[in-house]
Amino acid sequence: MSASRQHSRFTPDRGLTGRMVTTMFLIGLLYVGFTGLLIVLLRGAWPLVVLISGGLFVAQFWFSDKITERAMGAHPVTPEQFPQLHGAVDRLCALADMPKPRVAVADNDMPNAFATGRNPENAVVCVTTGLLRRLEPEELEGVLAHELSHVAHRDVAVMTVAGFLGVLAGAMTRIALYGGMMGGGNRNNNDPNAAIAMILVPLASMVVYALSFLLTRLLSRYRELAADRAAAQLTGRPSALASALTKVTGQIAAIPTEDLRKAQPYNAFYFAPALSAKETAAQLLSTHPSLEQRLAQLAKISSELGQ
């Protein structure tokens, strides 16, 4: 799409933008500091550290949509295969004045949806077959508007990068410790530098991962509320989105635990979390705000629209 369509009609959210900038700055600072620590401690191996960290980061960012699609079992579908789904996406994209993303479906009975991609032109919106079977057309449009707002606000790309940096810190640590980057045979000698590195690198990696984890969780909860707001305001039907939320959350509770465990690593991308009620009690570690909080916000928007 042309540059003139950089901004959609989804309501801008300065709170979300500020949180995305802050999160990326802090996580980027952590990542740069961690890479610098590896360069100092590994000395002669620093070119390999920079090459690996830079290469993995670029690959994750550039191919994030394909990686996520494959991990979640999504496959592209045509308008002929799913005419109602494509029709809903077409209407919402026209209403929002934004490029139409690729449309995909995951053969999964868990009712859910997600969006991913580094920008609106390379985005994909996916729904599960379980969601399509359970929702009415207006409810489905509410869910799709929620996911499209993630694309329009570009928080999908931020979440992808932010989540990957913490994982990358752990991967680099494993490479450093077990791939011979610490000096090979010198580790068996009484080399104080090697001993210090063996302690500091894993410790720094754990700190980076823990801080990245908490920062992405904070951003994830806010972006879900922002997407609910934007979807309700775009469609003018917050009650339909509230109905979809209630239905999806209730139906997820009936999905086998084994299937939910498989989906949990991708919770931050889903419309509703694949978590049991017991697990969602830990709000600090949750990827989503509580159902009650989301419904209360939608009820407030409904009241405002009624006035």
TrEMBL record:
Cofactor: binding details: Binds 1 zinc ion per subunit.
Pfam families tied to this protein: Peptidase_M48
Subcellular location: Cell membrane
Required co-factors: Zn(2+)
Listed InterPro entries: HtpX_protease (IPR050083), Pept_M48_protease_HtpX (IPR022919), Peptidase_M48 (IPR001915)
Domain Peptidase M48 intervals: 80-300
Residues holding Zn(2+): 146, 150, 224
GO cellular component, one term: plasma membrane
TM ranges: 21-39, 45-63, 156-175, 195-215
Enzyme class, first EC level, given as a word: hydrolase
EC annotation from Swiss-Prot or TrEMBL: 3.4.24.-
UniProt-listed Gene3D superfamilies: Metalloproteases ('zincins'), catalytic domain
GO biological process terms on file: proteolysis
Membrane topology: Multi-pass membrane protein
Key words of the record: Cell membrane, Hydrolase, Membrane, Metal-binding, Metalloprotease, Protease, Stress response, Transmembrane, Transmembrane helix, Zinc
Gene Ontology molecular function: metalloendopeptidase activity; zinc ion binding
Active site positions, chain numbering: 147
Family listed: Belongs to the peptidase M48B family.
NCBIfam families xref list: PRK02391.1
Protein name per the record: Protease HtpX homolog
